[in-house]
Amino acid sequence: MDIADNVKEILGRAENAARRAGRDFSEITVLAASKMNDAARVRQAFDAGIRHFGENRVQEMREKLAQGAYDGAALHFIGRLQKNKVKDVTGVCRLIHSVDSESLAEAISKRAESAGIVQDVLIEINVGAEESKSGISPAAADELICRIAGFSGIRVSGLMAIPPASAGITETRNYFDLMYKLFVDIKDKKYDNVNMSFLSMGMTRDFEDAIMAGSNIVRIGTAIFGARNYART
Ligand SMILES: *Cc1c(COP(=O)(O)O)cnc(C)c1O
């Protein structure tokens, strides 16, 4: 299967999941997680209809950006963001999915202010309480959002999560449900300067379940580009 076929299949499956959930497919963004795929492969996904790309590594993103990989598409940052790389991402990416501390939010806000823009960000939730993973605990989300809501260079626009890779499908669904509940709870509180628009969850192995649970951004790598060859880098 080539990338165009894969995109077609994934969009069809996502649309079916939306229909089963009684949701409007036009509200759901299928984002291609394009790490380790070069600019030519990104363009193949674009030509097949993908309009949102997510990258994990700033250096790789910069190289592909310079090659025009994302022309005409929205770029997202979905990886762990170091403070010294904030300048490369702020104002460049439509959405930063991985804010998990006040200090990172502050660094992004300052950078955005000096560029005269407002950067949309998501709060990353470590929904499975995994030690190795970034993100804050569900219980800490409210407090972090309250602390950073007043930063004038950012707008908190929703939540992102990656359930544990080891979780079975039932457990994963429970995590998705928990995330949706957290998302709605925070939305209902109507904090000033907080716009709970996006719930970013679901990847190759579970994106249909994520859509059923209320996700509106699914981040798909393998099912679009094929298995990543980590040995090559
Ligand atoms: C790589 C990646 C994905 C895509 O994972 P697949 O299982 O290949 O679909 C999604 N989200 C993030 C944050 C990623 O790093």
Largest beta-sheet characterization: 8 strands, parallel
- Overall number of structural domains: 1
Cα-to-Cα separation, first versus last residue:
23 Å
Compute the CA-based radius of gyration: 17 Å
Give the fraction of residues assigned to helices: 40-55%
* Unique bound compounds: pyridoxal-5'-phosphate
- Which fold name is given in CATH as the topology? TIM Barrel
Task: List key phrases describing it.
42% helix, alpha/beta, 9 helices, 8-stranded parallel β-sheet, binds pyridoxal-5'-phosphate, 233 residues, TIM Barrel
Give a nutshell description of this structure:
The chain is α/β, with parallel strands linked by helices. It contains nine helices and eight strands. The two termini are 23 Å apart.
Present the secondary structure layout:
Elements: H1 3-20, E1 29-33, H2 39-47, E2 52-55, H3 58-66, E3 74-77, H4 86-89, E4 95-99, H5 102-115, E5 119-125, H6 138-148, E6 154-161, H7 169-189, E7 194-200, H8 207-213, E8 217-220, H9 222-225
Parallel strand pairs: 1-2, 1-8, 2-3, 3-4, 4-5, 5-6, 6-7
Pyridoxal-5'-phosphate binds at residues 33, 35, 56, 78-79, 162, 203-204, 219-223.
What do these coordinates show?
It contains nine helices and eight strands. The mean pLDDT is 97. Helix 1 (3-20) runs parallel beside helix 8. It is an alpha/beta fold. Strand 3, helix 4 and strand 4 (95-99) form a beta-alpha-beta unit. The chain has a single domain (3-221), classed as Alanine racemase (TIM Barrel, Alpha-Beta Barrel). It binds pyridoxal-5'-phosphate. Pyridoxal-5'-phosphate (PLP) is lined by residues 33, 35, 56, 78-79, 162, 203-204, 219-223. Residues 33, 35, 56, 78-79, 162, 203-204, 219-223 line the site of pyridoxal-5'-phosphate (PLP).
